[in-house]
Amino acid sequence: MKMCIVYWSGTGNTEAMANLICEGAVSTGADVTLKEVSSASAADIEGADVAVFGCPSMGDEILEEDEFEPFMSSVTGLLDGKKVGLFGSYDWGDGEWMRTWESDVKKAGAHLLKEGLIVNLTPEGDDVEKCRSFGKDIAGM
Ligand SMILES: Cc1cc2nc3c(=O)[nH]c(=O)nc-3n(C[C@H](O)[C@H](O)[C@H](O)COP(=O)(O)O)c2cc1C
Q1: How far is CA 82 from the centre of its chain?
Q2: What is the CATH number of domain 2-139?
Q3: For residue 98, how far is its CA from the centre of ligand 1 (angstroms)?
Q4: Are the CB atoms for 110 and 84 separated by under 8 Å?
Q5: Which of 17, 68, 89, 97 has the highest CB neighbour count under 10 A?
Q6: Where are the domains of the chain?
Q7: In 10 A of CB 21, how many CB atoms?
Q8: How far is residue 116's CA from residue 98's CA, in Å, rounded to a whole number?
Q9: What is the predicted pLDDT for the residue at 128?
Q10: Best of 68, 90, 94, 101 to mutate for ligand 1, by most ligand atoms within 8 A of CB?
Q11: Residue 19: closest CA among 122, 102, 114
């Protein structure tokens, strides 16, 4: 099972989530590639059995606009029938960006494996295990 995790993180919170999700997935024996969006390509998504995307809530409840949103748009056509997981960090909002994002990938035909995982700021306490479990769970689906 090949999983590719592609993320954007400005201050490291979503990156910390990405590392924990990766740890969880690797613990199941999955073959996981972890990439910052700046070094990812459409081929990474095309070649993955499970594509996992991470981006914090930015702007006003939207995806980061300069790098992540353009990448997401460029791979939307590859998501039809693809197993997908979504995650990201937020601060003062209520997760609206994640609900919009979930709806967009479903419209593109993706099979969203789990509800998007959202963490307030940096993953600590229970969130650490939630991130690892998210990785384990989606690797086994
Ligand atoms: C320009 C900017 C816009 C943001 N907009 C939102 C927002 O609309 N809703 C929200 O809950 N948090 C918002 N945040 C907070 C970030 O989502 C939060 O700090 C998150 O932990 C950043 O993750 P990162 O460390 O992976 O970059 C914003 C932060 C910045 C810098």
Answers
A1: 13
A2: 3.40.50.360
A3: 12
A4: yes
A5: 17
A6: 2-139
A7: 31
A8: 7
A9: 98
A10: 90
A11: 122
Q: Map tokens 């939630």 to a residue.
A: 130
| Distance in angstroms (rounded) separating the CA atoms of residues 71 and 31 | 22
| Phi, psi dihedral angles at 88 (to 5 degrees) | 175, 165
pLDDT in tens, 16-75: 999 999 999 999 999 999 999 999 999 999 999 999 999 999 999 999 999 999 999 999
Question: Could you tell me the end-to-end alpha-carbon distance of the chain, in angstroms, rounded to an integer?
Answer: 10
Token pair recorded at residue 24: 């969880």
| Ligand 1 close to Cβ of residue 60 (< 6 A) | yes
pLDDT digits (tens, 9 = 90+) for 71-127: 999 999 999 999 999 999 999 999 999 999 999 999 999 999 999 999 999 999 999
12 Cβ below 6 A of ligand 1: yes
Check residue 20 and give its pLDDT: 98
For residue 93 and ligand 1, the question of a CB distance below 6 A is answered with yes
130 vs 40: CA distance, rounded Å: 25
